[in-house]
Amino acid sequence: MHGRIIMHIDMDAFYASVEQLDHPELRGRPVVVGGTHRSVVSAASYEARRFGIHSAMPMTQALRLCPHVAVQPVRMARYQQISGLVMTFLETLSPLVEPMSCDEAYIDLSGTERLFGPPEEVAMYAKKRIRELTGGLTCSAGIAPVRFLAKIASDMRKPDGLVVILPDQVMG
Fold first, then answer.
1. CB-CB contact of 170 with 147 (8 Å)
2. Which residues pair with 11 in a beta bridge?
3. What is the mean pLDDT of residues 142-164?
4. Would the pLDDT of 19 be above 70?
5. Which residues, at least 6 apart from 166, have a Cβ–Cβ distance to it below 8 Å?
6. Is 121 tagged catalytic?
7. What is the mean pLDDT of residues 40-66?
8. Contact partners, residue 110, CB within 8 Å, separation at least 6
9. Strand ranges (DSSP E) for the chain?
10. Which of 46, 109, 118, 164 could form a disulfide with 143 if both were Cys (CB 3.0 to 4.6 A apart)?
């Protein structure tokens, strides 16, 4: 791959996945993170998404769609702790890391192939290392010549996906 190489890393259902990690009894169950019945869903596990629940949805609607959903309070300090582990690791891959939020970042891999190998191998290594560092959390990765397409690529095969968009696949 020549030219710019941008990787987008996006943690999968981050807040809900952290809750499932910290509370093993919630694994495999529908989980939403948010406040009281008057609040909105901050994050929904993939199990909850199967019921049509998504972030920013009113909590009352989420509870109507899935009455047995586990509602967990937001624990921002915990999410930031894990985010710090992930972002610190990403900075070992490139000096150009741009966090967009606590659960996603752009990493400019341009010129790093001699150090780390082809971008797809870097992405597979990053996914494996993030899973190890976080105790089991998954992320999705997208690689493309521009940020916008890297973000789209990371969304294409969630959860735990990897999509590469090559420069010759992009129309000028």
1. no
2. 139
3. 96
4. yes
5. 1
6. no
7. 97
8. 3, 4, 5, 6, 96
9. 6-11, 31-34, 41-44, 70-72, 97-101, 104-108, 139-144, 162-164
10. 164
Model confidence band, residue 35 (pLDDT cutoffs 50, 70, 90)? confident
Handedness of CA 122, 83, 151, 23 (dihedral sign): positive
Distance CA 73, CA 58 (A): 15
pTM given for the model: 0.92
Residue among 91, 104, 113, 120 flagged as catalytic = 104
CB-CB contact of 8 with 152 (8 Å): no
Report pLDDT digits (tens) over 90-126: 999 999 999 999 999 999 999 998 888 999 999 999 9
Say how many C-beta atoms besides its own lie within 10 A of residue 81's C-beta: 12
Residues 131, 48: Cα–Cα separation, whole Å = 22
